[in-house]
Amino acid sequence: MDAFISGLSEAIELLISFDPYVMNIISVSMMVSGIALLIAAIIGIPLGAFLGLTNFPGKHLVVALLYTGMGFPPVVIGLFVFILFSNVGPFGSLEWLYTTRAMIVAQSVISFPLVAGFTMTAVMGVNQNLLLQLKALGATRRQILWATVKEARLGVLVSVIAGFGAIISEVGAVMMVGGNIAGKTRVLTTAIVLETRQGNFGLAMSFGLILLTITFIVNFIMLHFQKRKLIGRD
Amino acid sequence: MDAFISGLSEAIELLISFDPYVMNIISVSMMVSGIALLIAAIIGIPLGAFLGLTNFPGKHLVVALLYTGMGFPPVVIGLFVFILFSNVGPFGSLEWLYTTRAMIVAQSVISFPLVAGFTMTAVMGVNQNLLLQLKALGATRRQILWATVKEARLGVLVSVIAGFGAIISEVGAVMMVGGNIAGKTRVLTTAIVLETRQGNFGLAMSFGLILLTITFIVNFIMLHFQKRKLIGRD
Amino acid sequence: SEDETSVLTMATTTSTEDSGLLDELLPIFGDETGYEVDVITVGTGQALEIGRSGDADILLVHAKELEKEFVNDGYGTERFPVMYNDFVILGPTEDPAKVSEANDLDEAMSLIYQIGKEGDSTFSSRGDKSGTHVKETTLWEEFQLDIEGKEWYDSLGQGMGDTLIAANEMRAYSISDRGTFLSMEDSIENLQIVFEDDDMLTNPYGIIPVNPDTHENVNYEAANELVEFFVRDDIQQKISEFGIEEYGQPLFFPNTD
Amino acid sequence: MTDKVIYNLQNISKTYSDKTVLDIDSLTIRKGEILGLVGPSGAGKSTLLRILNFIEHTDSGEVHFLGKVYNKDSLPDLHTRRKVTTVFQRPYLMTSSVYQNIIYPLKIRKQNYDSQRVEKIINKLGLTQLKNQRADKLSGGEAQRVSLARALIFNPEVILLDEPTSNLDPANVKIIEDMIADYRNEFNATVVMVTHNVFQAKRLATKVSLLYKGKIVEINDKDEFFTNPKHKVTKQFLSGDLVY
Amino acid sequence: MTDKVIYNLQNISKTYSDKTVLDIDSLTIRKGEILGLVGPSGAGKSTLLRILNFIEHTDSGEVHFLGKVYNKDSLPDLHTRRKVTTVFQRPYLMTSSVYQNIIYPLKIRKQNYDSQRVEKIINKLGLTQLKNQRADKLSGGEAQRVSLARALIFNPEVILLDEPTSNLDPANVKIIEDMIADYRNEFNATVVMVTHNVFQAKRLATKVSLLYKGKIVEINDKDEFFTNPKHKVTKQFLSGDLVY
Ligand SMILES: Nc1ncnc2c1ncn2[C@@H]1O[C@H](COP(=O)(O)OP(=O)(O)OP(=O)(O)O)[C@@H](O)[C@H]1O
Ligand SMILES: Nc1ncnc2c1ncn2[C@@H]1O[C@H](COP(=O)(O)OP(=O)(O)OP(=O)(O)O)[C@@H](O)[C@H]1O
Ligand SMILES: [Mg+2]
Ligand SMILES: [Mg+2]
């Protein structure tokens, strides 16, 4: 249990001292996960909403595939991205491997099915009369999509939260394609693994706590906009 | 690209040859994730539904915490469980560390917030009139919970799928508390990491493909029961 | 921002990185030459694979046979010996197999084998085809002990640090490089060295620049400078002193192979 | 008609975000009454029914129900609450079959039930053909009839009806009015019915009350209410001149 | 009244899982008509409106609309579809303010609009007080009025009304009937109105049609329909004896 206590005090110390090493790790984490999430959301939300609203033969299969994407092992995605961007891979000439760019690519791929899948579920849960109503009012496909996403906003928001949670806490893929290079591609999770491996459980815990604090604050801010909806069951 | 092709053919070969090493890894994976998911669902679904239906001061905070749990780094949970069950930890005498039991504990903790959080979201998305209707018909709290879960069943199912996806593909925590012992606690993801570390990218890919195939089949079966709902937007 | 040629990517194994040696030496190299070294820490096999695909400029690993093969296949220009440390055999503090009383390595390994067979203890192997694991496998073979499929033989498939943590928890026997053991000694209180100092237990580290003829993108110039840096007398001196302050003994020895 | 008091409301008020939608000084409902509740749109009629069914808290005041007192902090126990039910203005049917929806109240009461009686109610309401259909795909009037069947099935002592025939054609309206009257006579049940149809109130109610801006403006025996309205607002309402 | 044909339906049918709910040989609706659509619950009235609004595919047959032909594989383009709208039996209001709901059709048309006219409609329907309230918390009648305002706001050529006054009190009913009549007169718009209220059909419609079990049993000028019904079923319906 000591590890928790010492981890906690170490975490607080690290944070208030603005240790540049720690600050760099935090900022790389936020930057990589933030951009990746943005990419995943920009593609995933419209696509998920579209799938939620449309029927076509084989939809069942597409849905199962999308949900399977949620269980796509991040390490496999990491490996995949690694091979793509490796020197001998098709995109080797970009020299993105062991940079934050490759990490962003991997994390976008990881979070995308989560965002799209949960958005789809949320949209499917919206009252079916909305669709008829929107059509009757003369909305275009795009306007229907947007209005439905707005109605399902809590679910869509949670899809983004889930995507964020998955990538900010992910370690295998970023380790593989980022290389955990100190000062460049080291993020909170890879730092946790590094410290754990070296037996520094206290420091590992403190990085974990920092990570959780960040996630909590981000969630809290995101949910704030949904406060009314959240407690609106009156 | 070669790695993909060779990975695919290797995967098929491994599967059809019923290689006992591979079969053991698959069965440990399924057993651990299956039991963990069951535990998470039994606690998470009722709790999530309860939170979705009830208003209380500070609910906003509890919700943010739950969603933060979705982004709880698995390695930190692994570390946590490790410390609990280590020789010097409070449950050390159980000798669960480096057995599938510790893995089940860790995976239950990882999947629990996902199941509870998405169930909560799904239940909150149900038409608010349902609650009034159920009360007016004389349903008890428990009956209201159950009826609401039934109405939100697609969302609840997806919460279970999300939980399954998260733990079947997770590697950090099971590695840490299970130890990746060949024939005992080695699962698909830890096997992937092992092969990757050894530079056997093809074999790693093939384990990845096996994992995805399993996830896909499981999802497909689960979704089958929801087929009507899924394509029912007519 | 930064010039591409000023960055050098080195792939190495966890045991090297975790010892902290690189953190001490690489900044000096950076100050002297202006090169910045990105260290990628992976398994031995993966390090060699990264070298084969030209994703690293230089490798620092410890698997002599594999390294030679790497050079022979044309992926590396040459293997330069840098340093060595040694392996130690670890066991639980109560040492149920009485390995510490063994007279030679053969007897030590046999005692571990015996106690495992009796079901009174286990052995934690890295099981990841790393330098350490390859060495361990050679030893079992050398003394004709067949560990294939044995219940007491746990093949972990993990890094050195993780393997030691597991052995510590399971009160198992294991083999480790001295550096990793010393650096983790404080957090693995159940383990102690039960056998050491044998010629067969040396662990040589080599450094290999990736062949620019195979991968033209590699930073061969910088790689060569790093090689020259590592074999320089003052740096070899630093290697031999590294760890004395903290552990009372050196973790690595300068090497002329 | 017996004199037994079922409901007695005292100084009830209900406010939604600063807007007081209900403010009732006093209201008594007796056993066996059919109270017709009329009033313009937004007057608070549905809100009052929610309070009578104990599915919404009041902000202040007391509800005496079957001799016990409840206020904003206390609700009746399950057993008592199960004596009342509502047919909502927009009924919510669960995504199971029509039949499953109708017997739901019996199922949750773990009650042995007379399946012949169930069939009879289903039959009377013209739902026999729809029994095995999914309930969430029904037409407006079908949904309303299922909702009524679901309410009558478990013999509640008090039935609250929120415009139960608003989506129905004349023939169905007649059937339902007859069923309500019969049910009340057979079980000496108490009925509160919101309706916009003054004729319906005339046909069915024993007492009528006008709710206006959250207040009970007038309550009286049916005949008195229609032939001899006391209040100015009632007169306006009956002549169709009362707008909000 | 002009003679211009707006709708002409030929051999339309619609089946839900083996159950044919609509089967219309022929139906013509002309510009400026107010067609009252009556019929028992479940007859297919709402389904017909969905087809007239092109928000549901037919299974067979042709819909001629403004001179073009559409069938189960073809729907009008956006521009044409935007000439029609429906006020649904159970209106769906989005979780924004009442005002936002009402101007939504204008916003999605990216149309400059006369905000005075918006205010006028809101005013007439007695929604001024509710303008900034959340639309998903409205009472039944309030929701119905918002839905009507939202439909009238963008001057559709064809308005389909599905029991638009079912949840309203007499005074409101009158206001809305007047608005519908005025709107039709001002814009020479075409109106199809489902109603269970025979009096309402009498007051408002120019033509009346009886839908029964998915078929159009009779369609005629209002006066003829009520005073001189041709079909046996129509007679039964008008006397209140027609049950499914
Ligand atoms: N949850 C809520 N939040 C805010 N306002 C509400 C809520 N519920 C109802 N109201 C408002 O309270 C007033 C009364 O509503 P209620 O549903 O009781 O009216 P009603 O008399 O049933 O009207 P109608 O005949 O139109 O159904 C309305 O103005 C409505 O907008
Ligand atoms: N999506 C659907 N799936 C299956 N059956 C449906 C569906 N929609 C409507 N129906 C059925 O089609 C029939 C006609 O429905 P419709 O809503 O058109 O009736 P209606 O004439 O409007 O009745 P009401 O006056 O009760 O609203 C009903 O029996 C209904 O149960
Ligand atoms: Mg109401
Ligand atoms: Mg209808």
UniProtKB/TrEMBL annotation, chains A, B:
It is found in: Cell membrane; Membrane. The chain crosses the membrane at residues 25-49, 61-85, 105-132, 153-181, 201-223. CDD domains: TM_PBP2. Residues 26-222 form the ABC transmembrane type-1 domain. The keyword Cell cycle does not apply. It is a multi-pass membrane protein. GO terms for biological process: transmembrane transport. Keywords: Membrane, Transmembrane, Transmembrane helix, Transport. One of its GO terms (cellular component) is plasma membrane. Belongs to the binding-protein-dependent transport system permease family. PANTHER family: PERMEASE COMPONENT OF TUNGSTATE ABC TRANSPORTER. This is Binding-protein-dependent transport systems inner membrane component. It comes from Natranaerobius thermophilus (strain ATCC BAA-1301 / DSM 18059 / JW/NM-WN-LF).
Automatic annotation (TrEMBL), chains D, E:
One of its GO terms (biological process) is phosphate ion transmembrane transport. GO terms for molecular function: ATP binding; ATP hydrolysis activity; phosphate transmembrane transporter activity. Keywords: ATP-binding, Nucleotide-binding, Transport. Residues 7-238 form the ABC transporter domain. GO terms for cellular component: membrane. It holds the Pfam family ABC_tran. PANTHER family: ABC TRANSPORTER I FAMILY MEMBER 17 (PTHR43423:SF1). This is ABC transporter related.
